[in-house]
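Reviewers of the previous submission asked for a worked example of the structure-prediction workflow described in the proposal, so we include one complete record here. The input consisted solely of the amino acid sequence. No template or homolog information was supplied to the procedure at any stage.
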Amino acid sequence: MRAVLAGGGTGGHVIPALAIAHELRALYPCEVLFIGTSRGIENRLVPAAGFKLELVEVGALKKVSLAKRIATMTALPVAIFRSWKILNHFRPDVVIGVGGYASGPAMLAAAFSGVPTLAFEPNVVPGLANRIMAPIVSSAAVHFEETCRYFQRCRLTGVPVRRAFFNLPPKPAGSPPTLLVFGGSQGAHAINEVVMNSLAALLEEVPGIQLIHQTGERDYNDAQAAYLRSRAPAEVLPFIEEMPEMFARADLLVCRSGASTVAEVTAAGKPAIFIPFPHAADDHQSRNAQALERAGAAVLIAEKDLTSERLVGTVRELLCDPARLARMSAASRKLSHPDAARQIALMAGRLAGVGGAGY
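From that input alone, the workflow returned the following structure tokens.
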């Protein structure tokens, strides 16, 4: 079996794609090829994971200038032709689109070539590439049941995350209330600023609180200085390598609501305060957060409404109510999908004709 995983750009696209690729290798004698762009994180992560990567050049269409959109549309036929040449040489049995710039051209080239296609969509509302491909893909794997309305053939699989998030050790009895704040690998400046301005109030309103704060490189020095001035019990880090370990220590999370983060939160069964990135394509982070808030697993605070008073009040309300935290944790865990990578790989195998009929 030969499979292509197309797309990338951010860790939210590439990390689940790598999990799918590893599962394909585990389930089948499978040769895997990635198609991405030269500016995405796939250039670092994919070769490091031992997979071959081919590149196409394609730009953005959303939230860019008119000149950029025209340039992208002009280059798109070239990207589709380049993708077709890659597919014609590799001869895959299935192409899996994971979203991002390279996904659209590769999936279109696969459809033109009669190669079965599987769209992986982790957000409530599909990204542009998957929305364009929705009417013609062979099938789709999604994280939210409501996303299936965009596709003719669809299965709820969830988003692949590291197994460690599903197997967190219990927090020791009597340990202090702990708040974990993070905003992705680069941090989140708006969240960092409000948390730094809230330290004195947090210490007063939630006695004994401890904080773990991933700031990103840009805000690390300022945050470190703020914590030292406040004398708050805290671990301040520019980047957290072992995030499952930090999840295990936390009673409550404050974070963005990208698809991978949401999947990790539900896998760990952790209550969360989501502050969606307001400039995400199609406002998908707000949609993701709303889905968990409706399920009783999270609280959503829009960035425009994020103040010290609002943050401190919400943190106090949750950390001082263990019963509510327990209910949120249970609701969050119900939304998790421990076998997401395996289910997506099995779907791909069936489309390729090596995994049995139906799904």
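The two ends are 18 Å apart (CA to CA). We consider this example representative of the routine output the project will generate in years two and three.
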